[in-house]
Amino acid sequence: MGSNNRKTIWAAVESIFSVAMPAFSLMLLGRLLSPADYGVFGIAYAYIAPTAIIVESCFSDFLLLQKEGQVKNHTSAAYGLSIILGCASALLIALFA
Asked: pTM of the full predicted structure?
């Protein structure tokens, strides 16, 4: 199996789990929480989920699909930008809460 095939498979697995795990956790929380608590959680999740999408914005896919020699050059920039976007998103959530 070639290097690109392995990277593609890992990207596909990551995409599947990024959809399946939140759905599973929402179903589990729906069973464990009272309706009022689940409503509060839903409102908070409505604010947090879009910012998580913006912060992640395909950095992991970008790093997975790079050639092996180029990953080290781009890793620091991708993680640094991800931290900056995460802090900015947290600040926006705190300001609008």
From this structure: 0.52
